[in-house]
Write a structure and sequence with these properties.
- With 297 residues, the chain is an all-alpha fold.
- The protein has 2 domains: 125 residues, Ferritin, CATH 1.20.1260; 154 residues, no CATH class.
- The chain is built from 11 helices and no strands.
- α7 packs antiparallel against α10.
- The longest helix has 29 residues.
- The chain is elongated.
Length: 297
């Protein structure tokens, strides 16, 4: 357990309010970690969460020495981050919360002159908690490469195929049918290719890699084809499909940037340009083929 030394100072009313805000943040995050620990299945992860919760509670007690008051946690924040972690994964939820905590550290720096011991808490937040977070094991993050493969291929192949089919067929039901057949066949093909690739590299779980690739591919196919199953105007459908593709790219890259500490803007721009570029080229090719062969459907 970390030891903190308290200076015998008389904080101003303004400082007391700042310290109470620090208290509230620390007890809120302590409660979040404890709630997550209760639902975590892996014992190693539970231990990590309990350790972080204990340390946050210790920070709370540090500030309480100055405020002489108890402060209630932010229940809305607890609810939000607990459910984000449950839906999008433990690592994502915790690291998203830690990003918010970085802003709190900037506020900590403003009271260093009054309470120099605050530097111990800043250092602790920077080093110790990050070390604990990195110990958390979450299976799906081990298969990010397989998910990226399925997601990226589905976005590039299907947006391109739908762009070409939209101009070539100009019938949303036919486009949806052709797109589904294309997507299902390509999804199984990608999953099989990933399985053989992982097995050739003697990966520990080639079937799981293939499963994640296939599921990512099929989920993307379902989302991109949805407009064609609902609407009748093929031009509106392709516009919505492109928007959905961009939203998928945006969400997935943001998720990975938070969970894996990777750059967001460059990855998003690269993936978006490739997907949109392939769609534009395929649309242009379909126009030329239809005009050259005189096909009218």
């Amino acid at each position: 357990m970390l030891k903190y030394f308290y200076m015998n100072i008389q904080p101003s009313p303004q400082l007391i309010q700042i310290f109470k805000e620090f208290q509230r943040n620390e007890i809120t995050e302590s409660q979040i970690y404890l709630n997550l620990a209760k639902t975590e299945k892996l014992e190693a992860n539970r231990d990590v969460l309990k350790k972080i919760a204990s340390e946050e509670k210790e920070h709370y007690e540090f500030w309480k020495k100055y405020t002489k008051e108890d402060v209630k946690p932010n229940k809305r924040k607890i609810f939000f981050f607990v459910w984000i972690a449950r839906i999008l994964g433990l690592t994502f939820g915790i690291k998203l919360m830690e990003k918010g905590e970085n802003k709190a550290q900037i506020k900590y720096a403003t009271v260093l002159t009054d309470v120099p011991e605050t530097q111990r808490i800043i250092d602790d937040e920077d080093a110790h908690e990050q070390k604990l977070i990195n110990l958390i094991h979450e299976e799906k993050l081990n298969y990010v490469g397989s998910i990226v493969l399925g997601l990226n291929d589905a976005l590039v192949e299907l947006t391109g195929a739908l762009a070409g089919l939209s101009f070539g067929l100009q019938n949303t039901k036919l486009i949806a049918f052709a797109g589904l057949i294309t997507g299902i066949a390509a999804g199984f093909s990608m999953a099989a290719a990933e399985y053989l690739s992982q097995k050739h590299e003697e990966a520990e779980h080639p079937f799981k890699s293939a499963l994640y690739t296939g599921l990512a591919y099929f989920a993307t196919v379902a989302i991109l084809i949805m407009p064609y199953l609902i609407l009748s105007n093929y031009l509106i459908c392709i516009a919505i499909t492109i928007i959905l593709a961009l939203l998928i790219i945006l969400f997935f890259n943001y998720y990975i940037s938070v969970a894996k500490d990777l750059p967001f803007k460059k990855r998003f721009a690269e993936m978006a340009l490739i997907s949109l570029g392939v769609s534009a080229i395929t649309f242009g090719v379909s126009v030329l083929i239809k005009k050259y062969f005189g096909i009218n459907l």
